[in-house]
Amino acid sequence: MMMDILMYLFETYIHSDAELQVDQDELEDELLRAGFHQKDIYKALHWLEELAALQQTDAHSAIATSAATSVRIYTAQEMERLDTESRGFLMFLEQIKVLTPETREMVIDRVMGLETNEFELDDLKWIILMVLFNVPGNENAYTLMEELLYSKEQGIVH
Questions:
Q1: Domain range summary for the chain, segments of one domain joined by +
Q2: 0.85 cut: is pTM over it?
């Protein structure tokens, strides 16, 4: 599954501060050795390329100028992928300033970019971490998100 590859890459390279300047062929070989399928590897690498491309586009610049009182209306497809709990979690993260309207839209874009029928709140949390890590200027938000994740895993947050 694509999410498994993304999580593997995030934990192995990004989260561990390992050298990320890895040749793509080496990376594909490593993922194949780890037991992932070629088709899924290509999809995951393409997904990551699209995440990087989001930072360089002005597609989300209009979001930054939207009113603070505006409300995000989800499309039917987004509501199919993001259940009520996931949408509520996104709203919560926006309210506590972990996500901005711009990073929220990047998260939704990457969620919709996944080729999967199975998507849960835990998957959303990983995607949020990946987006925050990859967008410059979100170090504090990334740290807050990390703390939320790990404290919940240990049963502190309910």
A1: 2-153
A2: no
